[in-house]
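Section 5.1 Outputs to date
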Amino acid sequence: METIKKEPGPNAHAAFRLGMVAAAVVMLVAVGSLYAFGYLTGAQFGYTVVLLFPVYLVFAASALSVWLGFDKDATDLQPVSRKRGQP
């Protein structure tokens, strides 16, 4: 029996966008608070914002995409090949 695959709709796209904005705001507020209260030095703050923040956003995007149904697996792949003589 085949499973029916449904594509995520516009609500999933809006939820992904909102989730990414929320994740970015939460991280920036947390890092800014740590800096403001003196738990991070200027160099640590810069390191966190420049190097760790993008990695955090990738993990957040990965988690949101799986949760909202944007993930793809091996069954979604199709062979990409050309027959000889085709441009």
